[in-house]
Design brief:
The chain is 23% helix and 28% strand. By secondary structure, the chain is an alpha+beta fold. The strands form 4 sheets. Strands 5-4-3-2-1-17 form a 6-stranded mixed β-sheet. A 6-stranded mixed β-sheet has the order 8-9-10-12-15-16, covered by helices on one side. A 3-stranded antiparallel β-sheet has the order 11-14-13. A hairpin with a 4-residue loop joins strand 8 (163-164) and strand 9 (169-172). The longest helix is centred in the last third of the chain and has 19 residues, at 211-229.
Length: 308
């Protein structure tokens, strides 16, 4: 079911005034992989995961952060800028072809080379006809041991966006954005029905004693975004060991009520297909009317680094 680029299906309504039928079910695919030094193998396994999800009935498929390679930011290495890709370019063409072949919407994360010396961690949304219909450049850029992203990526300049597609309104965010309630809130306010977080997160060597605490904090944040904003949250994490990082997998889907709908393996590649009844969004928001009760006139200090 393809839609012409730039056109919305009649039932979705306009970008400003979306129609939300009482029940509208969408099947979402999550492709969790373990990356290797072989770029070709990483791309092939992501494309195979997309095909597997589509065969399982997925209509929207999300792959993990920077799926084409091992996580590049464990060290500050100028040579790794060679991994960056133009958008559009050969790698996006492969994903676009997969979207068209399997007639699925795809959310995928790329190391974008915007121009010489300017790079982003970018999530693209592909329509089921292969067209790129949405761009989100990661807004929150970490700089922690083995997550030296500020060396590689400029902060995003797209703002927080909702992307209308033939299946649903996609809210693309990326990894470190997961920790910021402001990012989830603003993406929800833009009209997103599902927040998608392509992710690369795990524990460091020497921090094994903190692993469970860190994982539970991450998981709690994802669940809280679903509840506080009355929408679905999907996080697709990588798994396996890369250098000093053990990625903890556990890709997950939460419903607007905070109900856990599915969780992938902690330490194995896995593809999930999860049914999401988008009618639950309105149900949750009318029972827990957080948007109704927000005191927007009192939130000015959110625009400051710290309060008065």
């Amino acid at each position: 079911m393809s839609q012409p680029a730039g056109r919305l299906p009649p039932w979705l309504g306009s970008p400003d005034r979306p129609a939300l039928p009482a029940t509208r079910t969408v099947r979402v695919g999550l492709v969790q992989s373990a990356c290797t030094p072989s770029r070709e193998q990483n791309i092939a396994q992501a494309l195979a995961g997309i095909a597997c999800a589509a065969e399982g009935g997925a209509e929207v498929v999300c792959v993990q952060e920077l799926f084409a390679g091992e996580y590049p930011c464990q060290s500050e290495d100028h040579a790794k800028f060679s991994q960056a890709q133009q958008v559009p370019g050969p790698l996006t063409d492969l994903v676009a072809a997969a979207a068209e072949q399997h007639e699925v919407v795809i959310v995928a994360s790329f190391f974008e080379r915007r121009t010489p010396g300017l790079f982003h961690n970018t999530a693209l949304v592909f329509e089921s006809d292969g067209s790129i219909v949405g761009t989100y450049r990661k807004m929150h850029i970490p700089d922690d041991p083995h997550y030296y992203e500020k060396f590689y990526f400029a902060p995003g300049d797209t703002g927080f966006v909702s992307v209308p597609t033939s299946r649903l309104r996609v809210g693309p965010l990326v990894c470190w954005d997961q920790w910021y309630p402001e990012a989830a809130r603003l993406t929800a306010m833009a009209g997103a029905e599902v927040l998608f977080y392509p992710t690369a997160i795990g524990s460091l060597d020497g921090e094994e004693s903190l692993h469970r605490q860190q994982f539970e904090a991450w998981d709690t944040m994802l669940r809280s975004h679903a509840v506080a904003n009355g929408l679905f949250v999907v996080a697709v994490n990588r798994t396996g060991r890369e250098g000093a990082l053990n990625f903890w997998g556990s890709s997950v889907v939460y419903a607007p009520s905070g109900e856990l709908l599915a969780r992938a393996s902690h330490d194995q590649p896995q593809t999930l297909v999860v049914e999401c009844d988008l009618g639950r969004i309105e149900w949750s928001r009318t029972r827990w009317p957080f948007f109704r009760d927000r005191r927007i006139e009192s939130y000015g200090n959110l625009l400051k680094r710290w309060g008065d």
